[in-house]
Design goal:
Layout lengths: L1 H22 L15 H16 L10 H14 L1 H4 L8 H4 L19 H10 L15 H12 L6 H12 L9
Helix pairs in contact: 3-7, 3-8, 6-7
Length: 178
């Protein structure tokens, strides 16, 4: 009987403590704060399961040079401010985000992900990360072009690498900080 009472009491106390944790403002909500316990693990688990379930299993557009060049143009315009360019340090915007956006041209990026997984993330965005959904602003072809670029970022043709490197070398239009 005591065991059963302990289980019932535990099932009541745990949700109440969780509610108090959030309602009393104890949960970290600033981008500079440390993550909550298990936050990253739970978020990644949910994201990975959802992407695996819903991502396209076949690619609608090939990873040819024309599509990769078009993907580079889209990437420079819509993605580079957060995810960076080859040979570029993270931007102030990326440095201030939580979680930190992956620098997709450093290390393996998402080259080990299927293009369909990257397509899903670009199209739908990722909740609570700052990653917006682009399915309302980019065509299906454009979503595939940037996804193919990222899936093949470690082996793009020289023309695509040059297009990305030219953007990284271009002077910033942003005024210097005082």
């Amino acid at each position: 009987m005591k065991f059963l009472a302990g289980i019932v009491l535990g099932l009541i106390i745990i949700p109440i403590c969780g509610l108090l944790y959030f309602s009393l403002g104890m949960a970290p909500v600033a981008t500079a704060a440390q993550p909550m316990p298990f936050e990253k693990r739970l978020a990644n688990m949910a994201l990975n399961m959802r992407v695996e379930k819903e991502m396209p299993k076949s690619e609608s557009f090939p990873a040819d040079e024309n599509n990769l060049l078009a993907g580079a143009t889209i990437y420079k315009q819509d993605c580079a401010v957060c995810h960076g360019l080859p040979g570029q340090s993270p931007t102030p915007i990326a440095a201030g985000m939580f979680p930190k956006p992956p620098q997709l041209f450093k290390g393996k990026g998402v080259t080990d992900d299927p293009p369909g997984a990257t397509y899903w993330k670009v199209a739908n965005g990722i909740r609570l990360t700052g990653m917006p959904a682009f399915k309302q602003s980019l065509s299906d072809q454009q979503l595939w072009q940037v996804s193919q670029l990222l899936a093949h970022a470690d082996k793009v043709p020289p023309s695509v690498h040059a297009a990305l490197a030219a953007a990284a070398a271009a002077p910033s239009a942003r005024p210097a900080a005082p």
